[in-house]
Give the backbone structure.
Amino acid sequence: MAPEISNASMFLLIFFVLIPISLSYIYALGLSRSIAWSSLRGVVQLVLIGYLLTYLFSLPPVIGISIMLMVMVTVATFHASKKGSGFPYVRSIIFVVIAGVELLVLAMWLGFDMIEFAPDQVIPMSGMVIGNSMVAIGLALERMKHEFNEGKDRIIAALSLGASPKQASQLLIRKIVKAAMIPNVDGLKTIGLVQLPGMMTGLILGGVPPVEAIRYQIVISLSIFTSVSLSAMFITVIFYRFYFNDRWQLVKRKETQES
Amino acid sequence: MVDLIDVQAVSSERLTNIHLSIEEGTIVNLIGPSGGGKSSLLMLLNRLEDPLEGEILYKGEPITNIELGKLRRMIGLVQQTAALFEGTVEDNLKYGPSLTGAWGSAMGRDLLDQVSLPQTYLQKYVDELSGGEKQRVAFARALANKPRILLLDEVTSALDVRNVECIEQRLYELIESKKVEGMFMVTHDISQAKRMGSHTVFMSEGKIVEQGETKEILTHPETTRLKQFLKE
Ligand SMILES: Nc1ncnc2c1ncn2[C@@H]1O[C@H](COP(=O)(O)OP(=O)(O)OP(=O)(O)O)[C@@H](O)[C@H]1O
Ligand SMILES: [Mg+2]
């Protein structure tokens, strides 16, 4: 059975935070304030989410799930958009991509009867998909700026040989998508060997037998993998166009250059 | 007779009021200080950029009338940096031809021959090449499209004397055999300018300061700026 963590022991966690803070102080890392601040912020966020989820779980599934998905996709959109500052319509495009990928994955889960349409299943699973899409999109956008700066001469060479923007960008698109997927590919290789994935850990702590827990973990890991590659792919093939005009010329975008 | 290329009162972000023409069968040198606008001019000729004002004609027809892919294959540019694609030498050489049609290794071997690189280089990775070898591969890559006009941006700057001779020889042959109708050749090497182009254009600060017969303007420059430039 899941162990209960008492309020008293929660309070004692403060000692856990004091350790990195004192280390930062001793070695003059200058991180004390940000460790304290992010710990506090994290705790407050989680407490609020705890109550919010309790409330949402009590609502009819359709309403609770819709509200929470909306919130998650919106927050993820704003976060990922920061990396794409300078591109036109960034927020709208990213919102549609994240929402689209999430809906597709959700449809697969429900269609194949992997999970039930219940808030306590859909919301945590979706959170992982949305969060990973968000990170992948951020990586793709960063990498795109980098590649288009570094590879400018090669793009010009390709255009000069008669390539269309689409053909000229092939050289980079592969690298961009790959860069966005690498963390997940690497993660999958050592999954369970180095780190027990969060979801599986949670289920095991909650008293689910390991063999049962890995089923969920496999579903979620592969779903994340799918959504990460789809997000990175969509974002890349949508955004590379903004580097060109319809006369097959590279347009200068100061704002989309690497900072 | 109508000019091969006629640049009429062209201005762009970095160039002002460029008037220039090239006759069929000739080479035009572009010389001038760094930042003078030579590369910028080449980019207008294959429409990597478009003029804000003025017009560029190919045999009397505005180049904007020619389909873009066709224009860029017809007017080949060799950039100042080799800008090779990742992969092998063959990957680079076949890039242009395979956009529109077929490619065979025989073509690759012939191209390497033209820039006097050994045929075994076809499978070599580009990051294993020396600076001068990269430059020659970039030149061969442009030739693979069988361009009618060549825009050459300092294509021999990293080569030794023997290889400079070889490339220059190749350029002469291309003009003489009429495979190439005309060339614009950016160079920092005044003696090369004297050997190559019948016509020379001196550019500085985005403008053409002086142009004329190569023999004439390089031996008897009129403007103080060109005199100064030739002295350096
Ligand atoms: N991509 C670019 N964006 C903005 N300005 C540029 C760009 N490329 C060149 N310039 C500027 O335009 C001017 C002309 O540059 P250009 O490259 O045409 O000179 P150049 O004569 O080819 O010089 P070099 O002999 O050094 O190659 C320079 O002042 C340069 O700083
Ligand atoms: Mg230049």
